[in-house]
Automatic annotation (TrEMBL), chain A:
One of its GO terms (molecular function) is oxidoreductase activity. Pfam families: Ald_Xan_dh_C (PF01315), MoCoBD_1 (PF02738), MoCoBD_2 (PF20256). This is Xanthine dehydrogenase molybdenum binding subunit apoprotein. Transmembrane segments: none annotated. Residues 21-139 form the Aldehyde oxidase/xanthine dehydrogenase a/b hammerhead domain. PANTHER family: ALDEHYDE OXIDASE 1-RELATED (PTHR11908:SF132), XANTHINE DEHYDROGENASE (PTHR11908). It comes from Rhodovulum marinum. The keyword Oxidoreductase applies. Keywords: Molybdenum, Oxidoreductase. It comes from the Bacteria.
TrEMBL record, chain B:
The keyword Oxidoreductase applies. This is Carbon-monoxide dehydrogenase small subunit. Signal peptide: none annotated. GO terms for molecular function: 2 iron, 2 sulfur cluster binding; metal ion binding; oxidoreductase activity. Residues 2-78 form the 2Fe-2S ferredoxin-type domain. InterPro entries: 2Fe-2S-bd (IPR002888), 2Fe-2S-bd_dom_sf (IPR036884), 2Fe-2S_ferredoxin-like_sf (IPR036010), 2Fe-2S_ferredoxin-type (IPR001041), Beta-grasp_dom_sf (IPR012675), Diverse_Oxidoreductases (IPR051452). SUPFAM superfamilies: 2Fe-2S ferredoxin-like, CO dehydrogenase ISP C-domain like. Keywords: 2Fe-2S, Iron, Iron-sulfur, Metal-binding, Oxidoreductase. It comes from Rhodovulum marinum.
From TrEMBL, chain C:
One of its GO terms (molecular function) is oxidoreductase activity. Keywords: FAD, Flavoprotein, Oxidoreductase. It comes from Rhodovulum marinum. The keyword Cytoplasm does not apply. InterPro entries: CO_DH_flav_C, CO_DH_flav_C_dom_sf, Diverse_Substr_Oxidored, FAD-bd_PCMH, FAD-bd_PCMH-like_sf, FAD-bd_PCMH_sub1, FAD-bd_PCMH_sub2, Mopterin_DH_FAD-bd. This is Carbon-monoxide dehydrogenase medium subunit. Residues 1-168 form the FAD-binding PCMH-type domain. Pfam families: FAD_binding_5. The keyword Lipid biosynthesis does not apply.
Amino acid sequence: MPKDHGIGASSKRREDVRFLTGRGRYTDDINLRGQAYACFVRSQVAHGRLNGVNTADAEAMPGVIRVFTGADFEGIGGLPCGWQVTDRHGEVMQEPGHPVLAQGKVRHVGDPIAVVVAETYDQARDAAEAVVIDIEELEPVLDMKAALEDGAPKVHDDLTSNLCYDWGFVEENREAVNKAFETAHHVTTLELVNQRLVPNAMEPRVAIGDFDPGTEDSTLYTTSQNPHVIRLLMGAFVLGIPEHKLRVVAPDVGGGFGSKIFHYAEEAFCTFAAKQLKRPVKWTCSRSESFITDAHGRDHVTKIELALDAEGHFQAIRTETYANMGAYLSTFAPSVPTWLHGTLMAGNYKTPLIYVNVKAVFTNTVPVDAYRGAGRPEATFQLERVIDKAAREMGIDPVELRRKNFITQFPYATPVAVEYDTGDYNATLDKLLEIADVSGFESRLAESKARGKLRGLGINCYIEACGIAPSHLVGQLGARAGLYESATVRVNATGGLVVMTGSHSHGQGHETSFAQVVADMIGIDENMVEIVHGDTANTPMGMGTYGSRSLAVGGSAMVRATEKIIAKAKKIAAHLMEASPDDIELKDGAFTVAGTDKSVAWGDVTLAAYVPHNYPLEEIEPGLEETAFYDPNNFTYPAGAYACEVEVDPETGKVTIERFAAADDFGNIVNPMIVDGQVHGGIAQGIGQALLEGAAYDEYGQLLSGSYMDYAMPRADDVPFYTVDHSCQTPCTHNPLGVKGCGEAGAIGSPPAVVNAVVDALQRAGHTGVTHIDMPLTPSRVWSAMQG
Amino acid sequence: MTKVTMTVNGKPVSGEVEGRTLLSQFLREGLGMTGTHIGCDTSQCGACVVHVNGQDVKSCTMFALECEGAEVRTIEGMANADGSLSTIQQAFQDHHGLQCGFCTPGMVMTAAALLEKNPKPSEAEIRDYLEGNICRCTGYHNIVKAIMAASGQDVGAIAAE
Amino acid sequence: MYAFDFERPTTLDEAVAALGTEEAQALGGGQTLIPTLKQRLAGPAKLVSLTGIAELRGVCIADDGAVCIGGATPHAVVAAEAAAHYPALAALAGNIGDPAVRNRGTIGGSLANNDPSACYPAAALGSGAMIRTNIRDIAADDYFQGMFTTALEEGEIITEVRFPVPQKAAYVKFEQPASRFALTGVFVAKYADGVRVAVTGASEEGVFRWSEAEAALSSDFSAGAIAGLAVDAENMIGDLHGSPEYRAHLVKVLTGRAVTAAG
């Protein structure tokens, strides 16, 4: 029987009620008294020298309060990068400045040059058109390989080239890997593009700066996945505001998918301008503006080679990837193609030798950073595609080829620096074959054929590193921050609890699932637990939500804090019942003395903590509030297997997803309903990447797919019902809940399944020359592939 | 500025607006009803869907002055009279048809319009009717399931859970 | 949006008068015009909404059997009310954009804008419709003059579109996956005096008639009749979503499918 409460129950989400009745409070729903409006003047060219900005006409326009330019930010810090990669020669990466407003040059379409602040948004926008910009257009660099050629225009004049870093991983393996390829029985090579995506959380970004002249406190309301990170980066590195004078609030946030991790210029601007003008300043991004200002995702060009022996055992993997950084280094950009990508190149397989080379390149495009999966989808895609290709070349069933190479003994140290703690890849694959009804494929194929359609089946595995991250490890890898998480559990006198977490929910349902955990530990009703997040003023320093880390890291902190609460409460209970704390048991919200019928209720103990008339004051303080910080000692490693069945219209090349199944191992599960939902959403994003989405620039650096008119978001009629299963559970061995994280799996596991299925369909139809099609697999591309 | 008068969720309201004031702006900024959301500027995402004279429309692609005398219904007016969730809203909660909640008001308004026209829509009809509503979180699975459930259909056989 | 004056007349005469001033522009359902205004790609001094004019709304049947659609009739109304009289036209209207767009967008607005990927131009040209304005009747063959260009004069309002009802017809749209406009769409209509084939979404010149197919289908109304024809990719649109060659190919595929669907 499924549980009806606590850990393992599909508790309905409490936050839904406000969202369903229009009472959510998103940043744009906040309006402060006396608020002014900001409109950014942005570069319309990809690359240019900024010779002058004349704001005189704009400043004379109705309602204009002030026009800001780069000159206002001279001497003020730029947007910092949170990760420093060391290249294969031991040199640190090239790290350009990233001004809040352009200084001297503009480097991508959308680069902010000036900001008009006015009484109304329309007045600000009207005046923005009157700002006169003198730009000398320069030749843009857009293609990564061309950007690295001698004589290519430089995005940053003060750097030696457009190369951010040339990273080798593991560099010491390079020669051994090369040697393995020289002697390999078979080598499969695949060149592919993991295209640039636009994250497109449905809520566009918003920032409101506020300043209290009385206290000199600054407040920023922002659409962020991690308000403390923004407070630290903006306060310490950009504006020089100490953290105790700066509050960052991220209220209800309408999706993030990575794009709301980063510290953006607009946040710094609104906070700065509010202080300058002594009144609140609000900026609301339009969707069109978000396309050219939100950090993009992916954008890798890769060559992968897989060496196999005669039986199909993997001998070595060698990759060369060009990773687009865009025009500036976004907050975590350097880590994505390196530590979030190279470390996953072993996948689920025993490959003794791996060498990953990544060249990160500056171009005149929007900065690229983490987007759902971040590096891991890129790793999974190339690996699972090259395995499928190898299987076909060697005449081995692709499922069998995977099984033959599965890691089966845990813990397993990969040749790419991580140690998988647990897993059972055969179990998830077996489960997948069952739920996907793979044995029924042939009859469905025949049925498709009868209707004149091609049909294909794609299967792949994935593994990801989540629970980001062990600080001691990421520190060695170049992170400039720790990646622990925090929680404060405050018990009120009447027994209710408030949990203040450094994690942030922007769709993940923490208000419900976190409450389930704490309620379960104490044995009380979930409704007695309130989860508070998103405000640096009332939550302990936390690192926020991304990388499928909330439950694994934030939840662990919460467990630790709750354990401290329970330990203290037991002492109080022991005092009340005149027993030894060691004999006290907590069950179903009551403390009992073992072996007796003595009992006090949870509420009696909490009341005693705050009304300590009868209290062991010599031994413990009154009150019941505890904080814990949790820093994991390893990543978590969710893994699974995905299957996709497609139909292809042979006349038009249109691909339809007919069936999709996912078997995931997320370790223990707190709320199965929420986990299913996370997987569904990830799958849709993966299908979106595989079939629909792609950010494309023209030769001038203009974004061609700059709105929903050209950037194809998955809609309800692009996807089927999904069959998902997470009954295979190998609990994480090193966090208290045994959880692994589920937020990114769908987006990581699904793109190769779709592409494998389309290639399979075409191969079955006799298009044997088609071994790969680059994403998105638009009808036009699939049709062209079929033309040979 | 021109005065506009309409009925929103059964209550008469009026305000001074410009010609260019959109219905969505009037609702959000003029009336402080922020349940209606703005997710795009090309009339694609549907986060702003409301009902005007019984028809589902994108309130970001309609001027407030075009609603002179109209009956407007928004997400704030969808709950039952006693404040409890309506059948559709309850189905969205029961079947986890929302995550971040940003597209949700438009989804609920669109679903309500569909069910008024077609009380027992098929899966395909639901997916077709949601063509103008984009959700980035749910992959649509549970939204479609919720709408089927709200129309009294048995969704027990639909995959997952 | 730039600021503008807004008028919402209730009679055609008032609308014509309102549009007589400098830089005035008619507003149909606004489903294309309002997003354009948001991008500040247009800046009319005055917008004249046609949605309050009762005489411009509705579907009726003329004495000669033609389906007559008021210029300010939303797509959803056409989908519902024309279904019994001209099913292919109703089906086309019922698949434009999305439901909310169909409740606002109007036939007059669509034809006046003449987006090269819109559906209605294919129906009008494919049916040999008559576009009636406040001052004259314009045959569809004379009306469409290339991408976003029509025979309409400044201030001229589409009051009605009259569609002769064919013996058989069908429209097949291959959607551009983002905008859901036609990547290519083909309207085929068989009349007593011959077959008309109108193609939207494909050509740099906007909606056009594929005369070779019309000739072939007029003598043999079957998908096989066009098997030997080829569509020249020259002047076809090439973009993110499809090359000129792909669109040329689609024209032929969709024409065949439309013929089959027409029965």
